[in-house]
Design a protein that fits this description.
The protein has 16 helices and no strands. It is mostly helical.
Amino acid sequence: MTHVGQPVSAVNQPGPDGPHGGPHEKAGFKDVVMAYVGLTKPRVIELLLLTTVPVMFFAERGIPSLGLVLATVVGGTLSAGSASAFNCVYDRDIDEQMRRTRRRALPRHIVTARSALVFASVLAILSTVVLAVWVNLLSAGLSVLANAFYVLVYTMLLKRRTTQNIVWGGLAGCFPALIGWTAVTNELSWVPVILFAVVFFWTPPHTWALALRYREDYANVDVPMLPVVASAREVGRQIVLYSWVMVATSLLLWPVAGTGLFYPIAAAVLGAVFLVEAHRMWRRTRGTEDLSVIQPMRLFHHSNLYLSLLFVAVALDPLLKL
């Protein structure tokens, strides 16, 4: 696989110091604990919880039970951490070759693959028990489905085979919106499905911006992210298209859920700002592949802010009663 206009170098061969290349590191107790925490990808968990808890407020049309929120957060954290740890085990070969991931626990050989697999399995079991006992069976089932989809469909099936990997694989990251809703209502409706769709259409712009920044890493390990096989101009165009659909979908919540005026105003303003940023990045791709000119990480960081503030608006809307 080649990046536009540039050959792809061969993946590094295993080195003498470890089964996957890098040297074994001497690690103290604190290092090992932090390595296990790192397997769960805490920053990803933060983003997932941000799309869970606000939906609980919206479903409750007020402030939900603190105990229910706590149980949902604990169960969701364990589930997301489990999926991330499984992902780290399966992707340990390519993680060692990529600048962005080579400092993870498995490439550094602080944690063995077997230990990480046991850790991931225990987290999966605990998350299911917590959600089934203290939340409800529907939320627990959705959590198991999200975990299985991320590991089996995205990580093992799609990621290394198709440019559509993050489009369909990103479905797993949309489930927290459903889980937050069902934790309160114990049933599904069109309201959480719309929020599910917002995250679905948000994921490609968010991930492709990051993948554009690290496209050489992905190319070197033969992961066909869109920025690896397409020009920056085409990636920018795709980001703009998904961004427009994302913003339009976010506004659907107003008529479908009967929100107050605060949410549609916030969604429209946040969406307009995001679209401006997406179009600006697309314009910067004109006639160049120079990342210092394109500045994809600017859109990546903005996408985090957009999703965070949008779901804060979801939580605040029923409380403000405008």
